[in-house]
Design goal:
This protein is mainly alpha-helical. The chain contains five helices and no strands. The chain folds into two domains: about 60 residues, Orthogonal Bundle (434 Repressor (Amino-terminal Domain)), CATH 1.10.260; about 35 residues.
């Protein structure tokens, strides 16, 4: 498992939601330094911690997994198209989460 890539994804999702490391750490119930280590890929986190991070960010845990090798690219999609689709999915998740908070 590539913890550096996972950490980069955590950082990207956190920043897309305009959350500070402090805010994410508080939501997850871990230290700020531990979130920093996760984002740098310098420490491993338990599955339980990744589930808590995904809930705090309002995303599915599969958002942290790398795309399957050549999976969708073999279907004719470019990496740019896949990145745009992922960005749209992240936006849709944020919209659904914001609607859920209003109710």
């Amino acid at each position: 498992m590539d913890y550096k890539s996972i950490g980069e994804q955590v950082r990207k999702l956190r920043r897309n939601q305009n959350l500070t490391i402090e805010q994410l750490a508080e939501k997850v119930g871990v230290s700020v330094s531990f979130i920093g280590h996760i984002e740098r890929g310098s420490r491993k986190a338990s599955i339980e911690t990744f589930v808590k991070i995904s809930h705090a960010l309002g995303v599915s845990t599969d958002m942290f997994l790398p795309p399957p090798p050549d999976g969708l690219v073999k279907l004719g999609y470019t990496q740019n198209q896949l990145d745009k689709a992922r960005a749209l999915l992240e936006l849709a998740i944020r919209i659904v989460d914001s609607e859920r908070e209003v109710k």
